[in-house]
Amino acid sequence: MTITPASLAQMEAAHPSRNTWLLANAGSGKTRVLTDRVARLLLNGVEPQHILCLTYTKAAASEMQNRLFKRLGAWAMLPDDKLRRDLVELGEEELADPRLARARQLFARAIESPGGLRIQTIHSFCGSLLRRFPLEAGVPPAFTEMDDRAARLMRAEIVEEMADTLAPAAVRRLTEVQNGEDFAKLVDQIARTRASFTPPMGADAVWRLFGLPQGFGAADVLAEVFLGGEASLVAALDPHLRAGSKTDAQAADSFAALDLSAPNLETLIALEGVLLNKDGSKDPAKHFAARIGDFPTKDTRKALGALLDPLNDLMARIKGARPLRLALASAEKTLALHQFAAAFLPEYEARKAARGLLDFDDLISRARPC
User: Fold this and answer.
1) Whether 209 contacts 268, CB under 8 Å
2) Which end of the chain is more exposed for a tag (fewer CB within 10 A), N or C?
3) pTM
4) Within 10 A of 198 (CB to CB), how many other CB atoms are there?
5) Which long-range contacts link 111-118 to residues 24+ away (Cβ below 8 Å)?
6) Any idea what the Cα angle at residue 133 is, between residues 128 and 135, rounded to 5°?
7) Tens digit of each residue's pLDDT (9 = 90 or more) over 154-205
């Protein structure tokens, strides 16, 4: 038998005397390592009822149990030479007859042990723990576990009522800053990370978090860029750009679509798209850098004369203001999330409590030691 480096690594990870943490991609053999580890624990004399395996999904728990019982059942029937080969592939070195005899007994031991092999999802384990100690965990003794579908339906019901009567302003503001994200998924994330919104942050704390002065807003960002005269500058650039390359002419069309006499943040974002580099450059230093020396094309730059310096200055100001614009956008979204959560989470908790329900995140958080 040839043992590859990957097989050797799996054997070492499954060694029953080692405390092992695995980090691996899907399909790379994590379930095999876990089942190998349990088999080796059993071979080394650990009683089945003293082994606890936790997985995240029911499918993973079922798969692990099926694999383990299939292996133990096969061992009960294998002739000595094939059983020894299996144990060697598992990483075992002790292959004497008493060891083989124990291997053949493991299937029956696992079946007959009190409670059997405990291979559970983490949520099932937490639920069983909470049912044993409901008062200590502060949960209703007869609580019901709420599955993901029921939790989503409840959250959707609450959001609909918030939009109608409970907190319409908070819902409306979150829809304005969510950047096209799926709203239901966003609400699910708020529910899953509820600890991050308890207590909710106010505007002053959020603005400090992003390094912004109190009261800083869109007008302050725009003041960093638009000093007056930008509309005249772009108007003067227009004939030169249209006489230049196709790229220059496209930039002229982009400028023509903007109202630079009354600019807003959308105007600034559009100018960034023309006057700053994209983020696809191999040189990180050029990501969103001002296109000074690159825009417009070389021949057009020569024709600009006195217009070139004001254009370069505008590009530099847009580059300098971009971090402020992004920080403000992040601050506004963060504040909207906290304002929404401040209305949503208490209502969500109250409705679960009224019905004696715990969602999957409740099971884990309530079972966690203080």
Assistant:
1) no
2) C
3) 0.78
4) 12
5) 113/47, 113/48, 113/49, 114/49, 115/49, 116/48, 116/49, 117/38, 117/48, 117/51, 117/53, 117/65, 117/68, 118/49, 118/51, 118/52, 118/53
6) 135
7) 999 999 999 999 999 999 999 999 877 789 999 999 999 999 999 999 999 9
